[in-house]
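User: Please fill in residues for this 382-position structure.
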């Protein structure tokens, strides 16, 4: 929230309170990111994760708008914190709380409709060993997780009945239509439509087939099949990794830079301190993303050979969250703004990769140095 005192008179008091609340929520996300990272990392690396979250220009700029992402990010963080506590300590109450917050994240943004189901397999694996939990434990934990889902769903149902907020069947229709629209809009490789029309112009706006594709699924699949036949490499590259990289694009698709919608004033460009943070975060943006992608490989290899530290096993939670969101956005429209709530989880994964690689190369350097020292000693003896 970047508003000068001189501008505050023109702001609606209610809006001012909402923005202040969102700023507090953003601060809580940074603090909770530190605590989540502590499940997997040392104090130093966890503090670095929290710092990156606090300094993320995308997360800062997001709190200057009235967006579901602000609430969604906090609810997700709380849900994952409760889930990790539940998994680590076999705590039923925390499983209920995790179920509540994960279900609330779905009601905040429908993209999380399958997240609870996607995360549930972690309760089959013992967080403190390579073995599996006994049937009694995982049935109990999954039951408590499901209870959290039931509590929120039932409360939502009662609330709708009590206040008659809207027509449920119409809401389902709108949600289904919106999802299909996202699938169609996400079917333009690189958001290009033919040659020379870039994603910033919204390829679907200039596609004469777009409206008919929205209305007729069979026709849409026929069009997409023909386009895939004409440009197979472009579509394969787009769906097999291209969307994941695109969603992590620094610039937001419509307004550019870290701003989702046009801003009257841009604090990052007006304040030297904020601009320094902005530039530093931009320089490390892609290196952090590459480190994020490396972390699941490192974790799986170490876990496969039983060399994954006990603490690092908790990384499966942020990895699963990242994998789920990346998978959903590979099907839908991978707008960069949709990846902003993923930042805290991605930073945890990236910092783990960085800490592991530093440790790995440090050990390698010491081994090389010892071998050289032994060789020199042997030469002196000879």
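Assistant: Residues filled in for all 382 positions:
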């Amino acid at each position: 929230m970047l508003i000068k005192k001189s501008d505050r008179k023109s702001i609606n008091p209610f809006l001012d309170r909402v923005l202040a609340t969102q700023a507090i929520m953003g601060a809580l996300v940074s603090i909770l990111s530190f605590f989540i990272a502590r499940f997997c990392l040392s104090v130093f690396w966890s503090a670095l994760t929290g710092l990156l979250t606090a300094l993320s220009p995308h997360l800062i700029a997001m709190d200057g708008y009235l967006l579901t992402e602000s609430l969604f990010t906090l609810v997700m963080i709380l849900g994952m914190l409760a889930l990790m506590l539940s998994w680590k300590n076999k705590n039923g109450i925390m499983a209920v709380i995790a179920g509540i917050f994960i279900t609330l994240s779905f009601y905040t943004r429908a993209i999380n409709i399958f997240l609870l189901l996607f995360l549930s397999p972690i309760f089959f694996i013992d967080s403190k060993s390579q073995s599996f939990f006994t049937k009694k434990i995982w049935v109990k934990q999954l039951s408590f997780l499901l209870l959290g889902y039931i509590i929120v769903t039932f409360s939502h149902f009662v609330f709708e009945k009590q206040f008659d907020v809207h027509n449920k069947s119409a809401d389902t229709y709108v949600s289904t239509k919106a999802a299909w629209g996202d699938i169609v809009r996400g079917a333009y490789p690189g958001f290009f439509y033919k040659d020379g029309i870039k994603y910033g112009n919204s390829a679907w706006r200039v596609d004469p087939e777009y409206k008919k594709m929205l209305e007729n699924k069979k026709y849409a699949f026929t069009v997409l099949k023909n386009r895939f036949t004409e440009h197979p490499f472009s579509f394969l590259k787009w769906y097999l990794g291209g969307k994941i990289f695109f969603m992590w694009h620094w610039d937001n698709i419509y307004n550019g830079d870290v701003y989702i919608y046009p801003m009257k004033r841009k604090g990052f460009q007006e304040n030297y301190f904020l601009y320094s943070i902005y530039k530093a975060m931009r320089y490390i943006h892609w290196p952090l993303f590459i480190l994020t992608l490396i972390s699941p490989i490192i974790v799986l290899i170490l876990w496969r050979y039983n060399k994954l530290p006990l603490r690092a096993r908790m990384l499966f939670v942020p990895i699963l969250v990242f994998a789920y969101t990346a998978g959903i956005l590979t099907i839908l429209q991978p707008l960069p703004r949709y990846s902003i709530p993923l930042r805290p989880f991605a930073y945890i994964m990236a910092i783990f990769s960085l800490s592991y690689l530093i440790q790995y190369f440090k050990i390698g350097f010491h081994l090389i140095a010892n071998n050289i020292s032994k060789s020199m000693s042997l030469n002196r003896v000879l």
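For context: The radius of gyration is 24 Å.
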